[in-house]
Predict the 3D structure of the following.
Amino acid sequence: MPVIHVTQQQTFPQLDVPPRLLLGPGPANTHPRVVQAMGMPTLGHLDPVLLTLMGEVQELLRYAWQTENECTLVISGTGTAAMETAVANLVEPGDVVLVGVIGYFGQRLVEMAGRYGGKVHTIAKAWGETFTLAEIEAALVQYQPAILMLVHAETSTGALQSLASIGALCHAHNCLFLTDSVTSLGAAPLFLDEWEIDVAYSCSQKGLSCPPGASPITFSPRALHKLENRKHKVGSWYFDITLLRPYWFGATRSYHHTMSSNMIYALREGLRLVAEEGLEARWQCHQANAHMLWEGLAALDLTCHVSDPAQRIPSLTTVRVPDGVDAAATAKQLLHEYNIEIAGGFSQLAGKVWRIGLMGYNSRAENVALLLHALERVLHE
Amino acid sequence: MPVIHVTQQQTFPQLDVPPRLLLGPGPANTHPRVVQAMGMPTLGHLDPVLLTLMGEVQELLRYAWQTENECTLVISGTGTAAMETAVANLVEPGDVVLVGVIGYFGQRLVEMAGRYGGKVHTIAKAWGETFTLAEIEAALVQYQPAILMLVHAETSTGALQSLASIGALCHAHNCLFLTDSVTSLGAAPLFLDEWEIDVAYSCSQKGLSCPPGASPITFSPRALHKLENRKHKVGSWYFDITLLRPYWFGATRSYHHTMSSNMIYALREGLRLVAEEGLEARWQCHQANAHMLWEGLAALDLTCHVSDPAQRIPSLTTVRVPDGVDAAATAKQLLHEYNIEIAGGFSQLAGKVWRIGLMGYNSRAENVALLLHALERVLHE
């Protein structure tokens, strides 16, 4: 046997982490009940008890998304993994794809759709704005896409894209409708079936109050029909829904990958909290705390980047950085002096906005009060 | 606002799970210290404290793998995600790839390499056997591959492929060497640099005693050179190492996806346990408990599927199912009467073997004793 090199055999101290209040674009703080659930004993990925719990997660997701889609499941990865799953399964090489770009995450969809062989067209608005129905319709007529992709809550800008009626418009133009609901699920009104959305995905660490790592996705019967009639295999094996379905559905469950029981426990608990509270109460809570934040910001002479309150994401607010203020230094000071995490903008909005999240468990009046007080001291002292 | 459908607003009871002893092919039971670490407060994916912890995980992984590879990091997904990351980054369309297939996971590499455009050739052995150095050399001469892929510990068969000298042989033939160490890391001797392995990946839920969901991967300078000179973008965005490196390395960390702090805590703790025990002691422990199992199985007149003990994986034993015994019924009885999970075989070995894992935290004499006793009662009463 070769010699074991012990140069790297460092022993690091027992884990300790600061008690951050996570008011950035996600993750939010994990709900204590989710932490507790996640620590329950690990189960095998084919244990009948785990399969039952997975079925409950599917039911709870259907409620949270307001959909009857049978093909509703969880990807073993972060929201970005679920985004790639949506794109990889829906787009075939040569498909005409139209992406509405109102910020960074729309741009990411463009990049992914291109990697999976889509002929990608884009329409774009300034970061902070959203599309009108007429603009969408004109683009559908112009590009005749097989798939339209839109981000519901664009976390990079704080803008909430209205989705009602777009699905029906897509279907009238023989087009499938994919939406990113990473930041909206569990935080803002979302009606997948009513709005005729064909594919949606989300994450665990925002509106659902879980750690990152397990990401919901759902496919309408229309989307499944396209998937089942693909001419090419899905480019990715890990994200291939045709291979994941026999694991998630049916009488004989067949191994695909080692699903994390502990993340299923977490997601089930986060979704139980949504169901217990009820969607309407939950959406109202996010809206009320957002209003409290917006009023407090105005009292500090700070301006929201998205001017129309109806177009703001209730769980993620972008605030303009006043002239002469160093955005990064302010965020760093909040982190170091108050253990509060907020984020800056990036790309087009780098240095120009802060991004403040009030998501899931963190959407509470006491967090708004603390942040406003800390922000006032940091800015005005 | 549309009407909220409450038909799916089911409330499920508080989570409860049975206290399984996980003696299948993984996951193993999560170490209590890992559970404790995982429950610490969530941190943002760009928090300086998390970035420090990620650096510690990288150091600890280099020790566990016995490598000085700078490009050692963690994929946010299961071992299968890390496998796909290895393949997606190393294989370019048109590359000649040689895969040694000694079981299911070799076959999976064939499938993935094909999806990423490789011109794939295979050599194969019966499930339970391994390749000799001469067989590998003959295939390198015949196919002149750019990449050779081998599974170190083939979990579907219980066979441990000897890897010493193969890397040097590959490099003499101008070929890169990729190995799957999903089941061997932290359980069986593994010397990445000494054995000249260019790309290796693993998982969290076997030798490292964590839940599934965060998967180590490492690239040698030779592998990075190929990656940096690719003509085509990596097919997957989520698994693209050229995008992941700016998040994991360098002075300015840039966002790629939302890494789970809680899984980093888990992995750090699992790897700390490896470093505290020391690799040599850990490998000896796995070997000693495997021997205890093998002797106990022989006393029950049961035969190991891999005849040569030196070619058996110390952390995963395949046992032949005696004539007239229903393999699935036995496993089910162990689960329901004793809360012990073992697994059956699949594909070529379906119904013919059981697979018994003694991995990481579960590699303990008391688990062997309990299993042998329970197995005897189930088989002979």
Observations:
- The longest strand of chain A covers residues 96-101.
